[in-house]
């Protein structure tokens, strides 16, 4: 992931902070855009767990191509739900 932004910088940008150079990188980097969506999703899952509600649907896996990204989904939310129901 050389050249891409660290999670902390992605979080700052998602909160409306961050440097102009980082914002430019994010605007042109599909991997960092996906990582930002994933980071926001993870925060929602943490919030759901803390509030005892089902987590939101997961972010589709990053594949590097928009068409295949739309077709693929991860099953982490299903796996999470299964674990929570089994507990
Ligand atoms: Zn990047």
Instruction: Summarize the biggest pleated sheet.
Output: none
How many domains would you count in the coordinates? 1
Mean pLDDT across the residues is 78
Overall geometric form: flat
Report the total helices.
5
Give the % helix: 55-70%
- Percent of residues in beta strands? under 5%
Number of strands: 0
Question: What sequence of helices (H) and strands (E) makes up the elements?
Answer: HHHHH
The chain-level structural class is mainly alpha
Low-confidence stretches: 67-87
Could you give the distance between the termini?
36 Å
Rg is 15 Å
**Ligands bound here?**
zinc ion
Short description:
It contains five helices and no strands. The chain has helices spanning 7-14, 20-28, 30-51, 66-71, 76-86.
Structure description:
With 87 residues, this protein is mainly α. The chain has one domain (7-86). The chain is 64% helix and 0% strand. It has 5 helices and no strands. The chain has helices spanning 7-14, 20-28, 30-51, 66-71, 76-86. Helix 1 crosses helix 3 (30-51). The longest helix has 22 residues, at 30-51. The protein is flat, with a radius of gyration of 15 Å. The relative contact order is 0.12. Residues 67-87 have low confidence and may be disordered. It binds zinc ion. Residues 4-5, 25, 29, 31-32 line the site of zinc ion.
């Amino acid at each position: 992931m050389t050249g891409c932004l660290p999670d902390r910088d992605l979080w700052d940008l998602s909160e409306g902070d961050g440097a102009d150079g980082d914002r430019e990188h994010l605007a042109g980097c599909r991997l960092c855009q996906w990582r930002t969506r994933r980071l926001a999703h993870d925060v929602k899952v943490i919030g759901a767990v803390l509030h005892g509600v089902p987590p939101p649907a997961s972010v589709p896996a990053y594949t590097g191509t928009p068409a295949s990204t739309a077709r693929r989904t991860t099953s982490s939310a299903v796996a999470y739900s299964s674990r929570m129901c089994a507990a």
